[in-house]
């Protein structure tokens, strides 16, 4: 089974060590050098160019990064038909037609279109359009404010930065240290989002976002999926009911969800993957996906040349500047604040603005909610899990709020009390929770679970980030009959109890 993890010839990752013999090096000076041309690096470059700073951006694979080719875009392209079909099955008049299997080749073709068939010409044009210079090759720090770019023929270009180097190299899948794993050739998130056909049987190891989304996608596209979860349930970073409702729906859709299962070893026998658990259970499949975490893409970018630990997460302040430096920044996954594309792009905008202000010698407004401070990283991080039902959350869960020392109260309502939910589809099932700070009567967190709730989360994000008091929320009138009427039900439940 082929998975499109390759990179076109002109985009090959170059792992040549710049310390080995090379051709003569060229040195070019910029105001800012960005390592990594994914969405985060692109946004840093956009903001520093807008500030009038000359900017170089270095990429070893495809411009556009993980999100464009192996994560957000292909995974959601796979899931959108799955969710649309599930919605149609809830509606008399469509239900019968929606029982037909999905046209898997058509779904995969649409997925391929969203990844531009793993070609990055359009994104390269965008980088050139903002006036940034793109360098293809392996970028590596070579001391303060210095980056070397090595290409396949061994030639090296040295870039120096007058003001800042920004690390935006993201993360990669973490694989467990299991006997036999290398020989099995397991899937990671890359293979799961780029495979060119559905495996007959798929084992998914993990209980987080990637595991649940890919179980939902490939289960609907024709695979017989078994989900092996080490913990007690799914989506452990959300409110408990989120994982419970998603697990229930996956089971109803035909996914075999097993919790409390820990894989001890894997082998491939005559083409069949065999996974043995610590209790001796045996599971067989055609492919196995490990969705068991991420590690920072910092192991070979020269951190040791500036006194930092290779392979480490980079600790930053709220301007995204790396602790202990005055020139090195880290935005996106590499700082481990929130491994989400939209949050990384937010950080990139903050970092670019802060670099521009420091370069110009203008006042740095880095207090809470200032233009040079990534305050939302601490208080208002939103996320949507695109399963059926969707799970969406922002801010703190009840447990997190209590652990942080807030005096809070959780308010829960079922979507069965919302007219818009009944209209959305027969048998609509979902739940909403808001976590209210009883001292200030503001929201510390909000969670929605149910079909279509991903489009509700921005309203919750505004309420949490804006510290909108309950008294003001009563004047935010939801349109009838929409899913957003759940806000009125939540406020009523808070008032009446």
Automatic annotation (TrEMBL):
<dbReference type="Pfam" id="PF07992">
    <property type="entry name" value="Pyr_redox_2"/>
</dbReference>
<dbReference type="InterPro" id="IPR023753">
    <property type="entry name" value="FAD/NAD-binding_dom"/>
</dbReference>
<keyword id="KW-0274">FAD</keyword>
<feature type="domain" description="FAD/NAD(P)-binding">
    <location>
        <begin position="30"/>
        <end position="342"/>
    </location>
</feature>
<dbReference type="Pfam" id="PF02852">
    <property type="entry name" value="Pyr_redox_dim"/>
</dbReference>
<feature type="compositionally biased region" description="Low complexity">
    <location>
        <begin position="1"/>
        <end position="22"/>
    </location>
</feature>
<feature type="domain" description="Pyridine nucleotide-disulphide oxidoreductase dimerisation">
    <location>
        <begin position="381"/>
        <end position="487"/>
    </location>
</feature>
<protein>
    <submittedName>
        <fullName>NAD(P)/FAD-dependent oxidoreductase</fullName>
    </submittedName>
</protein>
<feature type="region of interest" description="Disordered">
    <location>
        <begin position="1"/>
        <end position="24"/>
    </location>
</feature>
<comment type="similarity">
    <text>Belongs to the class-I pyridine nucleotide-disulfide oxidoreductase family.</text>
</comment>
<dbReference type="InterPro" id="IPR036188">
    <property type="entry name" value="FAD/NAD-bd_sf"/>
</dbReference>
<keyword id="KW-0285">Flavoprotein</keyword>
<keyword id="KW-0520">NAD</keyword>
<dbReference type="InterPro" id="IPR004099">
    <property type="entry name" value="Pyr_nucl-diS_OxRdtase_dimer"/>
</dbReference>
<dbReference type="InterPro" id="IPR016156">
    <property type="entry name" value="FAD/NAD-linked_Rdtase_dimer_sf"/>
</dbReference>
<dbReference type="InterPro" id="IPR001100">
    <property type="entry name" value="Pyr_nuc-diS_OxRdtase"/>
</dbReference>
<dbReference type="InterPro" id="IPR050151">
    <property type="entry name" value="Class-I_Pyr_Nuc-Dis_Oxidored"/>
</dbReference>
């Amino acid at each position: 089974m082929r998975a499109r993890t390759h990179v076109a010839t002109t985009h090959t990752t170059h792992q040549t060590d710049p310390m080995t013999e090379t051709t003569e090096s060229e040195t070019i000076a910029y105001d800012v050098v960005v390592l990594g041309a994914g969405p985060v690096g692109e946004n840093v470059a956009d903001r520093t160019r807008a500030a009038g700073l000359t900017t170089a951006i270095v990429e070893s694979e495809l411009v556009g990064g993980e999100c464009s080719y192996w994560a957000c875009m292909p995974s959601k392209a796979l899931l959108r038909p799955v969710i649309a079909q599930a919605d149609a099955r809830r509606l008399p008049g469509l239900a019968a037609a929606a029982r037909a299997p999905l046209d898997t080749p058509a779904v995969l073709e649409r997925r391929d279109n969203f990844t531009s068939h793993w070609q990055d010409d359009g994104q390269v044009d965008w980088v050139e359009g903002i006036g940034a210079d793109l360098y293809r090759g392996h970028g590596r720090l070579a001391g303060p404010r210095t980056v070397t770019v090595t290409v396949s023929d061994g030639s090296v270009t040295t870039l120096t930065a007058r003001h800042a180097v920004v690390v935006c190299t993201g993360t990669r899948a973490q694989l467990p240290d299991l006997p036999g794993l290398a020989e099995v050739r397991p899937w990671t998130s890359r293979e799961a989002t780029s495979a060119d056909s559905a495996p007959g049987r798929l084992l998914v190891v993990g209980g987080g976002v990637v595991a649940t989304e890919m179980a939902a996608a490939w289960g609907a596209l024709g695979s017989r999926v078994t989900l092996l979860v080490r913990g007690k349930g799914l989506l452990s970073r959300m409110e408990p009911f989120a994982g419970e409702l998603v697990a229930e729906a996956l089971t109803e859709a035909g996914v075999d969800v097993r919790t409390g299962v820990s894989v001890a070893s894997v082998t491939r026998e005559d083409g069949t993957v065999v996974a043995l658990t610590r209790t001796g259970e045996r599971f067989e499949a055609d492919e196995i996906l490990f969705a068991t975490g991420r590690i920072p893409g910092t192991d070979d970018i020269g951190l040791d040349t500036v006194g930092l630990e290779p392979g480490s997460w980079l600790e930053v302040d709220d301007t995204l500047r790396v602790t202990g430096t005055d020139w090195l920044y880290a935005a996106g996954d590499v700082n481990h604040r929130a491994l989400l594309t939209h949050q990384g792009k937010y950080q990139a905008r903050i970092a670019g603005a802060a670099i521009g202000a420091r370069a110009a010698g203008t006042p740095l407004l880095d207090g809470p909610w200032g233009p040079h401070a990534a305050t939302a990283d601490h208080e208002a991080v939103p996320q949507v899990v695109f399963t059926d039902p969707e799970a969406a959350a922002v801010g703190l869960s009840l447990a997190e709020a209590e652990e942080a020392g807030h005096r809070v109260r959780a308010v829960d309502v079922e979507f069965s009390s919302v007219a818009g939910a009944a209209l959305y589809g027969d048998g609509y099932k979902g739940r909403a929770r808001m976590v209210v700070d009883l001292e200030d009567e503001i929201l510390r967190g909000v969670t929605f679970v149910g079909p279509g709730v991903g489009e509700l989360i921005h309203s919750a994000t505004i309420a949490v980030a804006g510290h909108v008091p309950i008294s003001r929320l009563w004047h935010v009138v939801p349109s009838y009959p929409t899913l957003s009427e759940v806000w009125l039900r939540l406020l009523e439940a808070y008032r009446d109890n």
